[in-house]
Amino acid sequence: MSSYIIKPIIPLAVNLADGRRRFILFCGAGISKDAGVPSGQDILIDTLTKIYQQEQKKEKFSKEEVVKWYQKNKSLKDMSYSEMLDLVYPGMEQKRLYLNSFFEGKQPGETHETIAKMIGAGLIRLIITTNFDNLIEKALDMEGFSDRYSVIATNDQAKNSDTWDKVEICRIYKIHGDKDQGPIRNSPVELEKLDEYIERDFQELINRHGVLVLGYSGEDEGVIRCFERREHYRYPIYWQYRGDVNKRVKNLILNQDGVLMRYDRASELLNELLDRVEVVRRGSETDTTETIKRSYEQLLIRNNPLEIKVRIEEERSRYLDDVRSTYDSVGQNPNWQTLWDAHVKLIEKASRIIIFAEQLLRLEMSRDWEELIKTFEEIHSINKDQDRYGRNGLINYLFFSLFFVIGSRALRYERFAEIKKLLSMRKLYRDRLEYLLDWNIQASYLEERNQSEPQRYYVPKMHYLLGLVEANKFPIDKDELRNSILEFDLLCFIYTAKPPKDKIYPYWCPRCVYYFKHETPHFLQKIKIDDEYCEKIARHLFNETKDVLRTSFVKVDEVYVSLSKSMEGWPEDPFKTILRK
After folding, report:
1. How far is Cα 563 from Cα 503, in angstroms, rounded to an integer?
2. Mutual orientation of helices 416-423 and 478-497 as an angle, nearest 10°?
3. What mean pLDDT, rounded, does the chain reach?
């Protein structure tokens, strides 16, 4: 019976292509050696050579003589690498200069550059390396990721850093240390075991991910022991090699159903992998939510300001063309059903704009957020008459719906400075500038639809928007979106009720209160009990302290009670809990 065999790189490419970043890279000295950087072993031998030369008073000797002498010298073998360096370079600055001499003028090699491209393509986010040079970091900087990745090189950093699952762009674990910070591990006694928290993170990462090993011989006891303990049933391990493979690595691969991949250079493997991933992605590319998310994420991770701005302008222009075309196609006197059908189609076509906005918020791209929210003004400006009738009501309600969906995303990610930028938007209306919350959101066709219903709704705009959420018309989990829309609506009311005014209007009418069912909104609870959250929203949205914000809810509640007297069926006060001592 014959079986069909494919190259092992094919399933690896297919699994990387989905952008879920379930594989990590483990990089050994081989990736830096390609760039002309000596390995840790080379540096150790250089240090030992200086000691040997002085003790033996020899001018000519071989590397083999030094190694043999070292292996017989028990006192030296029991020393850490830092202790050996102290013998020759007792000062910290002397040690730093000595170590840096090995890396002066060295630039990232092809492997480092390709790793940075993999980060940009959204294929990986976690790198573990035994190298203590900074060539991966340099490659990331050159690819546009400066200040957008983190490095863990000491036990304290591993202990006190956020967990790896919080990493958005990239984190590098330098498990043998970094030449610029803290001690480095380089002697046999040091390599027998990793530091406690470094080992904890390393073990968890290789347990919970597939692993692609590059340029690593598997000679370090502390590292290989972790690999041997790896819970391999979740994801496979791929091990690139170019020469002989030691017996322990062979057994590891055999026991874990792993794959040995022979490539003379790690960059050769990675370049082929990138090409194959691109083929997979082109072959399966459809406008699904996941592919759109991945596309925007890769764009934003590259962080090229001009490229991002152009993409926003393209998406905005494309969507505005759809809106204008729909506005023209419904005619002068459409019925409410025609307008509703047009609204649903425009909501479905807005998926790309909504996903783009969410990715900007998730990755904290404040500069580009300001560019994207210009979409709201351009949509609303299509209604040149600024009335509520016919197709102008279609424009008003489209603005209302997208404003709430996208605004709710900012609340979801606690981007209060971005919410302030959104609510501070103004456009010219007749002879004055109007803030966004004063823009016309009325739509007579919704009132007509509500009149035709067997049961009329107090707040048809909110009711029909939540109906679209329930029908999964937005590229967001419906339950999470529903709750965040309602909470964002209440936040808009609070924003207009601070500072309190002398009249009921122009306060924002919180339609959400009909849906809370006597429950206190989650963000109000956090304002009351979470000092950090309260300080964040107070400072970034209201430009005040948390104590002032909490105190101001007395006045906000007074405004709410005043409004409730004029609103039919207005339910219980949602601010009671936050005011209760």
Report:
1. 10
2. 60
3. 88
As a whole number of angstroms, the distance between CA 346 and CA 398 comes to 8
Q: Dihedral (C-alpha) 144, 148, 151, 156: value to the nearest 10 degrees?
A: 160
Question: Cα separation of 526 and 537, whole Å?
Answer: 10
**Across 101-207, where does the E strand assignment appear?**
126-129, 149-152, 170-174
Cis peptide before 11 (omega within 30 of 0): no
> Taking Cα atoms as reference points, which of 19, 93, 477, 5 lies closest to residue 291?
19
pLDDT digits (tens, 9 = 90+) for 43-84: 777 888 888 887 777 777 787 887 788 778 877 776 666 677
Q: In whole angstroms, give the CA distance from residue 304 to residue 292.
A: 18
Distance of CA 356 to the CA centre of its chain: 13
532/534 Cα distance (integer angstroms): 5
Taking residues 523-550, what's their average pLDDT? 94
Q: Please give the pLDDT value at position 111.
A: 94
CA–chain centroid gap for 174, Å, is 21
Backbone angles phi, psi at 154, to 5 degrees: -130, 165
pLDDT digits (tens, 9 = 90+) for 437-464: 999 999 999 999 999 999 888 899 999 9
Using the structure block, give the residue that is written with the tokens 């029909």: 464
Q: Which two tokens stand for residue 59?
A: 């001018």
Are the beta carbons of 81 and 191 closer than 8 angstroms?
no
**Tokens at residue 504, please?**
């009921």
Confidence tier at 247 by pLDDT (50, 70, 90):
very high
* Letter string b/e over residues 567-581, b meaning 16 or more CB atoms within 10 A of that residue's CB: beebeeebbeebeee
CATH number for the domain formed by residue range(s) 9-37+105-284:
3.40.50.1220
| Residues facing 213 on adjacent strands | 26, 239
**Rounded distance between C-alpha atoms, residue 156 and residue 216, angstroms:** 26
Amino acid at position 78, single letter = D
Spans of all domains in the chain: 9-37+105-284, 40-101, 301-476, 497-581
Shortest CA distance to 474 belongs to which of 540, 409, 535, 563? 409
- Give me the helix-helix angle, 289-302 and 305-329, nearest 10°: 140
Residue 581 identity (one-letter amino acid): K
- Helix, strand, or coil here: 398? helix
Place of tokens 């006197």: 333
Per-residue model confidence (pLDDT) at position 348 = 93
pLDDT bin (cut points 50, 70, 90) of residue 403 is very high
Question: Which residue from 198, 95, 179, 176 is spatially nearest to 133, judged by alpha carbons?
Answer: 179
**Predicted local confidence at residue 1, as pLDDT:** 43
Please tell me the predicted confidence (pLDDT) of residue 504: 43
pLDDT of residue 502: 47
Cβ atoms within 10 A of the Cβ of 278, count?
A: 13
